[in-house]
Amino acid sequence: MNEVCFKNLNKENCWSLAVYEASGGYKIWRKILQGKLTPEQIIDELKASGLRGRGGAGFPTGLKWSFMPRKSDQQKYVVCNSDEGEPGTCKDRDILRFNPHAVIEGMAIGGFVMNASVGYNYIRGEFMEPFNRFEAALKEAYSAGLLGKNISNSNINFDLFSHLGAGAYICGEETALLESLEGKKGQPRFKPPFPANVGLFGQPTTINNTESFASVPEILQKGGKWFADLGVENSGGCKLFSVTGHINKPANFEVPMGLAFKDLLEMAGGLRPGRKLKAVIPGGSSTPLLTAKAAMAMNMDYDSIEAAGSMLGAGSVIIMDDSTCMVKTLTRLAHFYYDESCGQCTPCREGTGWLYRVLRRIMDGQGKPEDIDLLLGVQGKIMGNTICALGDAAAIPVESFIRLFRKEFEYYIEHGESMVKI
Amino acid sequence: MMIISDNAKKQIDVWVAKYPAGRQSSAVMEALKIVQAENENLLTPEAISEVADYLKMPKIAAAEVATFYENYNHKPAGKHVIRFCHNISCMLNGADDLIDYLEQKHDVKVGEVTKDGRFSIKKVECLGACVGAPMLQIDDIYHENLTEKKLDEILYNLR
Ligand SMILES: Cc1cc2nc3c(=O)[nH]c(=O)nc-3n(C[C@H](O)[C@H](O)[C@H](O)COP(=O)(O)O)c2cc1C
Ligand code: SF4
Ligand code: FES
């Protein structure tokens, strides 16, 4: 446990440069500055590590870095996605607060590999404490001569800046994030072109999640194989899981991939007295709901969670016990997506409104028997018909909540109140 | 009347310096926040338009940003803005009851300002601190693991 991003978690001032360096921090970066590592070697290690993007989509990081046109003489950028906003997700905040230098080193290494001399860390606007920690760490790194132009006469340039959001979940979507970084509304772009070709300010750009970047230095220090072996086939390494909801000790846990869900549940202190597990969202609000039975049988890795019927997503495990009203919970999520849709695509803009309003009227005791089919119909029309994945994210909970707990919806419509009596 | 103070300009310039030459409009989100903070937590159309001028960008582009993002106040807000998370992890841990408690105790509704102008309440989406649910943000500070007692203390100390 706590071997990579959270390695120094229990040390005093774990966010300081001194503590980071004492545990081997910036060793890889210094090796690069001394010309002792090539981009190809780094990409090979990352591929061997099995590191997959921790922002939710799980795309292999080594492969992503190899897509950048590193030989072209255009200005290139690396961008860190610290816009963390997926309901249930709260790990990047802790990485920024407790290990900001790992993010800086990871981004600098990325800059070198992809021949990008400028980086931005897009931090969500509410994260002032993490932002201040990151800024302080940046200052330390600049004063130590680890960032800037022609760093230690290496001919390597890397300037890193932080950018703050202003409250919009959609800016976590990578192309919306780029628009936002350019000082615009955060509305996702059509792809292709992909950011690796046309990204920030029209230049080649790679965007990775905070946890992805923060994992890179430790992987390169200990070797890709070391990291891969921590985890299981197809899910290399360890991962941060945010365990929240109806649980005794909600917390972030950095554990090996493939850990049994029931062990994770136990680490988080188990359920509250007298309560039974009802359902679990394993990867953040955008991933399908699972029954207690399916969850208890799965392991925390990409393939196992997929086999159970959901997705690992950002590793945000939301625990619901038998006091949970599924109608109310889904209504809450539907409201979230309705609120956060950027409004560009008709199916998403209109569909999320329909979903919320129909659920709202069920909650208000005005539901009609045909509402369940209406909800399923609307979610089906959103799914796969939008520019970005927020549309799918809004549709997915509706489908899975109704499929698994249809009776609760029928009961609510018939009786105008919840079937769950706490 | 000039809305942007010299001090605000200095702060905005720090942000402008982070972006390539000619890309100063990347600083608009922060510039709007800086100006809002100096004007009793309110972002007026005049302020938006001055920010646009200062950053040499079209007024409509600055106005689009000001209305797209959630962190700007277009109606008078309290001296402090309480941003209460009511998303899933906080909801499962009793956020709704705590919001009701807050409303009743201080005779103020979500979306309104208290009579003495001391604070206003907003319900917001997940603030990325779900392990500390239920939680809220006041100004730049997060308060986690809330209870009625803790809420009372926080509000007592809010001047
Ligand atoms: C609606 C939406 C919200 C997203 N929010 C985030 C986020 O908060 N943080 C994040 O890293 N990725 C988020 N993503 C995924 C990003 O688009 C992107 O895949 C990711 O940042 C890539 O980094 P990775 O390869 O390291 O995972 C979001 C995607 C969508 C569609
Ligand atoms: S799917 Fe929704 S959030 Fe995404 S671009 Fe379309 S309208 Fe915007
Ligand atoms: S759900 Fe409240 S902080 Fe995430």
Arrangement of strands in the largest sheet of chain B: 2-1-3-4
The value of Rg of chain A in angstroms is 22 Å
How large is the count of helical segments of chain A? 17
User: Approximately how much beta-strand content do the residues of chain B carry?
Assistant: 5-15%
- CATH architecture heading of the largest domain in chain B: 3-Layer(aba) Sandwich
- What is the H/E string of chain B? HHHHEHHEEEH
Largest sheet of chain B: 4 strands, mixed
Q: How is the secondary structure organized here?
A:
The complex is a heterodimer of chains A (422) and B (159).
Chain A: H1 17-22, H2 27-33, H3 39-49, H4 61-66, E1 77-82, H5 92-98, H6 100-113, E2 118-123, H7 128-143, E3 159-164, H8 174-181, E4 205-209, H9 210-222, H10 224-230, E5 238-245, E6 251-256, E7 259-260, H11 261-267, E8 277-281, E9 290-291, H12 292-296, E10 299-300, H13 302-308, E11 316-321, H14 326-340, H15 346-363, H16 371-382, H17 390-415
Parallel strand pairs in A: 1-2, 1-4, 2-3, 5-11
Antiparallel strand pairs in A: 5-6, 7-10, 8-9, 8-11
Helix pairs in contact in A: 3-10, 5-6, 5-7, 6-9, 14-15, 14-17, 15-16, 15-17, 16-17
Chain B: H1 6-16, H2 28-38, H3 45-54, H4 59-68, E1 80-85, H5 88-92, H6 95-105, E2 119-124, E3 136-138, E4 141-143, H7 148-156
Parallel strand pairs in B: 1-2
Antiparallel strand pairs in B: 1-3, 3-4
Structure report:
The complex is a heterodimer of chains A (422) and B (159). With 422 residues, chain A is α/β, with parallel strands linked by helices. Chain A contains 17 helices and 11 strands. Chain A has a 5-stranded mixed beta sheet with strand order 6-5-11-8-9. The two termini of chain A are 36 Å apart. Chain B starts with 5 loop residues before the first helix and ends with a helix. Chain B has a 4-stranded mixed beta sheet with strand order 2-1-3-4, with no helix packed on it. By secondary structure, chain B is an alpha+beta fold. In chain B, helix 1 runs antiparallel to helix 2. Chain B is elongated. Chain B has helices spanning 6-16, 28-38, 45-54, 59-68, 88-92, 95-105, 148-156; strands at residues 80-85, 119-124, 136-138, 141-143. Chain B has 2 domains: 6-68; 80-158, Glutaredoxin (3-Layer(aba) Sandwich). The chains are: A alpha/beta (422), B alpha+beta (159). The interface between A and B is large, with 55 and 44 residues. FE2/S2 (inorganic) cluster is lined by residues 85, 87-90, 126-130, 133, 135 of chain B.
